[in-house]
Amino acid sequence: MKYLTLFFIFAILISYGCAPQAVQLTPTEQKQVQALQRGEDTLKDRDKKTGITEEELAARDKTKEWSLKEIIGNSPLKDIYFEFDSSTIKPYYFPKLNEIANWMKKYRNIKIIVEGHCDERGTIEYNLALGQKRAESVKNYLVNLGVDDASIKTISFGKEIPADSGHEEDAWSKNRRAGFKIDQKG
Amino acid sequence: MTKSKMTLITLVMIALLFTTTTAHAKVYLDIFGKSFKKITIGIPPFKGETIDRSRMDMSELLNKDLDMSGFFIVAPQSLMDKELTDEGIEKQEIKFSNWKSIGIELLCKGKIQKINGDLVLEAFVYDTLDGALMLAKRYKTKTEDWRKIVHRLADDIMLAITGEKGIMSSKIVFASGGRSRKDIYMADIDGSNLKRMTNYRSITLSPSISPNGRYLAYTSYREGRPNLYIMDIENNREVYTDRTDGMKTGTTWAGNTIFGYSHTLGRYSNIYTLNVENKDKKTAQRNDGIATSPSFSPDGTKMVFVSDMHGSPQIFIKDLPSGTPKRLTYSGTYNTSPVLSPKGDLIAFVAKFEGAFEICTMNTDGSNQRVLTVGGINDSPQFSPCGRYIIYSSNKGGMYNIYLMLFNGESKKMLKFTGGEETQPKFAP
Q1: Interface predicted TM-score of the whole assembly (ipTM), two decimals
Q2: CATH architecture of A80-182
């Protein structure tokens, strides 16, 4: 009897520890996992049974690379611009960011870096922080639209890399920006 | 009873008399008074200098040093005729009335000798009013270090006349370079002995050096993103690195071991203090949005910083470790880069006026705000260790250069180092 109670407590503890993780997977995620597993299996099978030549692999890699380049080339990743000393996203950019969010949700394996920049006005140190805040504000907008938090990194360059080296509003307005880069390292 | 009381009063009076007289004798020029008059000093060529003046012009360098100090008007050489320059250096050889008649209040005479391969400089400073000897010093060094002893003489003259040592023996650490490429440099304040401290073909900026000169901290993009590094300069070893995501910058020191910096990531900013010896890291401030440019009082009990927690960048002061930040600036929409004076009684900062960003000072309660610069983008003010000078960068001359001025904005001088854009200067020992 005593052992039975202990066993039950133990079993409850184990199930409590494991259950939430199992539940966390959405149906689509489960499908993805299954697909991934199937893909691995078929590859392994082909390797064992027939094997594929190196040329075939290279050709396949090339098409894959080309298509990735194509995806990136046609991406909606265009700079967005800010007001002086502001990291608030202007409503004008909402549709553009929606487009980026949809694109990122479509190509889930692509990771990006949002780069925050400032114009030359103000102090160097404050602008380093402000650039970060601009990048974070763009990331936050995309994450709120359902983009995976882990697929967006942020970085600030302060006023160190102006897009336009001029010293008037025309140049400044081009420098107060958030740019996008594909995160090659993943 | 009354007798002892009387003795006590007499003693106090004597003591008071004594302190006032010594204070008066010591401080010739009180810069912390409301205004001060610059003293005119004459420095004729040193005896024995004519030998290799083209390579080693010590009296000329002393003229430059004292001019840069902001406390003196340096008499032009053209005022001194042959009779004056040929005169000896001993008190009895000098006709003080002649010097006084051309407006010179202080006279510095020097003699250079080579003794056993060493360079020896003897210097005397006289008050031309009564011929009183203000300073008599003898310096010895290797010939190639001739600048060093001139700077030391300049600092000693400042000590004798103003009551505090000058800054001409100091070094300056700063960031220099153009778009996408910046490095940290260090040089003597007169521009000589320029040394590149980093060389990463990347953006390296926001340097700060511990008061004992041992640790150099900076933010560098050399690994692709802005990481924070603290180097032990003596053995070129990394003692601390923060490689976490986000912006790490605003490096500063409170003493030789406590280091401060800011970190912005996600919604929040943190200002950390780090003990570089035992790596003990504490959060000194955390808020929504930005918190950066921390600066500590020498005892580490007070911190000023900039934050946009109320919308626009404003300056706050906080008692450490756990006080509530108190907002100091209310006028204008852009007040940044605060720095506490070494005596903890003054804050220098940058404020936006129309299109310009000016260096300002205020008391530690936010009162008595003064604007010290006129136009351009002025950035990164820092006090000298004595608190009498502010060093900063400005693009007023068309490009970013480093400038030195007195704490009240007087006597602005541009310092020359690399010839390129120079920013974020700080005093180094």
Answers
A1: 0.88
A2: 2-Layer Sandwich (3.30)
